[in-house]
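RECORD TYPE: inverse folding
INPUT: structure tokens
STRUCTURE:
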């Protein structure tokens, strides 16, 4: 087992348990469009800022550091599982974290590496690195564990969500943060995340998402509790496609439980020490 994950070579992910070849093919087909803010990943660009804001706030609370400063993040590590073209990975690295972005698709990793080279901040290669691998392969091949494990809009595309969450937990240090964002399995999410973007606006390729694979927030909490994690917070990500904005909102609004997480949401968990 290697002690430095970032020094490992890219891996063949075809036989990895978590990878659905059908799902992977959807993203390989459009991998060259990751950094087009008006392309098929438009809504990931829109959601990126509030997702990073959430991660920053939760990390500050967890590590008992001031939320108005990011200096303390230097020296802390994060792994972005299913990083795609690197949207979140780059943003996390700009906070000062040492980030490893991993993805099962070689095409996604190649695009992330190309875009990284366009920013002098990442020229040294110390703050941000990419690798083709899966979470379970990284667990098996490296002793590295991370202060934050992040996986955004990925779990709804894997073969086995429970096994996938277990791999995320295995990548986390004791007491570390694990963050996932995904879609709730509701009528609203079917409208917001499938009908509107895939069929009405046609900004996302048809068939990108399967509603049956969406996960209810209580289901996600149950999975992580069974793995020994403590749920910290869950908030909604409310998309406004007309103004191309996304708003981070509480899960509950007054007496209306879970009203803020009826479509997209982001959840944080703490691995036991």
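DESIGNED SEQUENCE:
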């Amino acid at each position: 087992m290697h002690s430095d994950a970032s020094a490992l070579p890219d891996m063949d992910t075809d036989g990895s348990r978590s990878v659905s070849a059908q799902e992977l093919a959807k993203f390989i087909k459009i991998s060259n469009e990751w950094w087009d803010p008006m392309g098929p990943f438009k809504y990931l660009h829109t959601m990126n800022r509030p997702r990073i804001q959430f991660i920053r706030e939760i990390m500050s609370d967890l590590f008992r550091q001031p939320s108005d400063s990011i200096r303390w993040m230097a020296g802390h590590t994060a792994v972005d599982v299913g990083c795609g073209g690197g949207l979140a990975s780059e943003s996390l690295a700009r906070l000062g974290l040492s980030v490893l972005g991993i993805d099962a698709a070689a095409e996604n990793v190649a695009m992330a590496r190309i875009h990284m080279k366009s920013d002098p901040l990442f020229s040294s290669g110390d703050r941000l690195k990419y690798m083709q691998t899966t979470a379970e392969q990284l667990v098996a091949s490296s002793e590295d564990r991370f202060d934050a494990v992040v996986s955004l809009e990925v779990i709804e595309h894997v073969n086995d969500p429970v096994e996938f969450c277990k791999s995320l937990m295995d990548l986390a240090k004791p007491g570390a943060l694990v963050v996932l964002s995904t879609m709730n399995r509701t009528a609203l999410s079917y409208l917001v995340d499938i009908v509107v973007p895939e069929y009405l606006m046609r900004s996302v390729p048809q068939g990108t998402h399967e509603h049956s694979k969406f996960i209810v927030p209580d289901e996600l909490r149950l999975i992580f509790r069974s793995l020994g994690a403590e749920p910290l917070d869950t908030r909604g990500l409310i998309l406004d496609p007309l103004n191309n904005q996304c708003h981070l909102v509480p899960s509950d609004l007054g007496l209306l439980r879970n009203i803020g997480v009826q479509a997209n949401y982001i959840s944080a968990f703490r691995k036991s020490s």
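NOTES: The longest helix spans residues 42-62.
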